């Protein structure tokens, strides 16, 4: 069977669909070792924090000094430099109405993210300790109450694949400690679709504002 143009189109579409399904996101952790932050692209991770130490540069060889040249004849006195043209600031025309429309666009974009961001892992361990057992027990109970109120809201906003959230009461510890881990992803296709929608909305907002300003 000979290769036809529509087969090429199907292959290109299949490749684009596969690329669109690749998850991208962040992998963040906090614990006794400090903050760890990585960018996640598929199965690969790019460490952001802490930054990897750079390799020391090799010392450059000193350049040989050339003999000083004879001074050139004095030219005409320098003319005063032209004043720099004032830089134009990027501003959204339309006054308060334009700002409100921009806020509505931002809120709409955040609403579109609902249930599209995927939480691959959500771990939060808070260990309560201290010299006062009654105070530690009080904070421990308050933490459980806060978790009970927070989890339904998280379930409405995100798809959580793996979760482990719990307070810990340890009278043997001298101070409170926090151990957290979050892996948050979104597919490239969804991210591009949301970005395209937000970009088109912003361009439409600018176009409408310019038309309104021209008519005034």
- The N- to C-terminal Cα distance equals 65 Å
Mean pLDDT: 78
Q: How would the global form be characterised? A: extended
Helical content class = 40-55%
Please report the total strand number as a whole number.
7
Query: Strand pairing plus helix content: what structural class?
Result: alpha/beta
Low-confidence stretches: none
- Total of DSSP H or I helical runs spanning 4+ residues: 4
Provide the β-strand percentage band. Answer: 25-35%
The rounded Rg comes to 29 Å
- Along the chain, the helix and strand elements come as HEEEHEHEEEH
Largest sheet, if any? 7 strands, mixed
Q: What does this molecule look like?
A:
The chain is an alpha/beta fold. The chain contains four helices and seven strands. Strands 1, 2, 3, 4, 5, 6 and 7 form a seven-stranded mixed sheet that branches. The radius of gyration is 29 Å and the shape is extended.
Strand and helix layout:
Elements: H1 5-20, E1 23-31, E2 34-41, E3 44-49, H2 95-112, E4 118-128, H3 133-157, E5 159-160, E6 163-169, E7 177-187, H4 188-215
Parallel strand pairs: 4-5, 4-6
Antiparallel strand pairs: 1-2, 1-7, 2-3, 4-7
Helix pairs in contact: 2-4
